[in-house]
Specification:
With 215 residues, this protein is of the alpha/beta class. It is built from 7 helices and 8 strands, in the order βαββαβαββαβαβαα.
């Protein structure tokens, strides 16, 4: 199967101990700047978002690689710092990626809030952020929903969330989406995020959606 897929595991394990590096302002698109990166959130038991996003991204990479898809990750491990959001976007741009998928989990203070949503840059700043990104967002939403994951009860509508403030999406010149897999403060979702079986279930659904998009 042709085309490069870039997976962007949110945050990084070294971010929390390097505040000066991750708080540095970088371009975020639409004439704005924002901090290089953030620490991410965690479950009530302390399992961090960066570990979840890394585990899922590696599993997605392995599935896609087995299907002969070339995959690049925006970070090489879960112990480093950053990269900044503009550098993450550059990975997909420089690779002329067929699809860029950022993987995250949310941290709503409402423990009852649950479900996933897929963010995309809107209004679009280039052609790739138009129909291609919308098709990727819809395909990802449909794939996760078909796999049994509930739509977000608290962000977006119908599992989709148009955003103009996410630097990685704004700066992308390739079809790109950001998947918020759910709420880490929700007990049921936290249990899935923290388990190997749960991580695999998200990876299976995300990989299947990417393959469906690639056709």
């Amino acid at each position: 199967m042709s085309g490069v897929v870039v997976l962007d595991p949110g945050h990084n394990g070294g971010n929390a101990s390097n505040p000066a590096a991750i708080n540095r302002q970088v371009p975020a698109g639409r004439g704005r700047t924002k901090p290089c990166n953030t620490t991410g959130t965690a479950t009530a038991a302390g399992f961090p978002e960066h570990a979840f996003t890394w585990a899922v991204s590696v599993r997605v990479r392995d599935i896609l690689t087995a299907r002969r898809v070339k995959v690049l990750l925006t970070r090489p491990d879960d112990t480093g710092v950053g990269p900044c959001v503009d550098a993450r976007a550059a990975v997909g741009n420089n690779a002329a990626a067929a699809a860029v998928v950022s993987i995250h989990a949310d941290g709503s203070t409402d423990a009852g809030a649950h479900g996933f949503h897929v963010a995309y840059s809107a209004p679009p700043l280039n052609a790739a952020q138009g129909e291609p990104s919308m098709r990727l967002a819809n395909t990802m939403r449909d794939g996760l929903r078909s796999a049994g994951f509930p739509l977000s009860t608290y962000i977006g509508s119908g599992g989709l969330s148009p955003r103009d403030d996410l630097g990685g999406l704004n700066l992308s010149t390739r079809p790109a989406v950001l998947v918020e897999c759910g709420n880490m403060r929700n007990a049921a979702e936290a249990a899935k995020f923290s388990s190997a079986a749960g991580q695999q279930s998200y990876a299976d659904a995300i990989a299947a959606a990417i393959l469906a998009y690639l056709g």
